[in-house]
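Hi V.,

You were right to ask for the full record rather than a summary. Here it is.
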Amino acid sequence: MFTEDTVISGKSQRIGYIDALRGFTMFMVVFMHVGTVCWGIVGKGISLHDFLGQVRMPMFFFISGFVLYREGVVWDMSHIVSFFKKKVPVQLISPFIFFAVFLHISGIPLADGVMDKYKLGYWFTLVLLEFFVIYAVVRCCVRSWWYKIILVAIGLVLYGCCSPHMTAGHHTVDNLFLLLSVHQWRYFIFLVLGALTREHFATVQAWLDGKWLLAVCILFYFLVNAFGDVLPVHEKPLRFMLSLSGLVILFAFFRSKQACFSRETRLGRVMQYTGRRTLDIYLIHYFLIPRNLSFITIFTDHPMPIIEAAASTLISILIIAACLLISNIIRLSPWLAHWLFGTKSATSNTSTQVHSPKSDG
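Predicted structure:
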């Protein structure tokens, strides 16, 4: 069996196909936003967006949980403080800078943007930071194997309780929900599943290499979607199972085709590079999505899923390429790269020490 990763000097090597999968997930995010903003067709059941939407954000949070877990890490206070010293700038400060600029360009007051449940798209990093807090508290308070059951239980409760239309019926509480984007906490279960997958990777690989898991997931995913007109696909239990089965299928596909997504192939290098720049693309791409294409109604008046997918794919690839170009220009300045993308200060582990931007400034 292929060795998924090795440990060198106490640090895990990056798994190539996981980076490629993250790159593809970022493409799905841009692809969905193109469908929403350019054509206005998401949710109308006439394109691929509905199917990708079942796995898009679950996969993003799954990967976040997968890379979050580190074997042998003790979640004591010293580790938690060190962890959040690294995460807060990346998850909160950097996105807020782009968010504020985007609001200014869009002519939207800051208060309105902050109280928008979706933060005009900039909700992901905030919610992910909140998930890190929940995860860290549980891991710190529960040191035995019980933490796994507690995390899964919390995830399932949040999935059942949180929805885009949730309300507490109290003005102050509802405003707090909007501020923290609590309705998106339904995705916490997928972060937990990602962390547990990483922790029990050998077992998961054995399941994937078996003959039943993938067969059941593939049949379930396609049959339920095929008969979605007569099945309650919008009911939460069925929606969760659809997302979970789609997640398993997509993860298994990238794992089985990891040779295609390795750094030895051009496709692999492109997708892995995209996967390592997902934050940059996420923060920049909202500025680049065309917003004056509402006159193109052909996809809504005459549904053509393949043609629409091709058009959305072309626009998405152009947007991602432009994001990467802008990212590389910004990263020419280590100081800007540090504050806008949360990169580490420019230091060297060689005998020649380079002062970090923080120490120089």
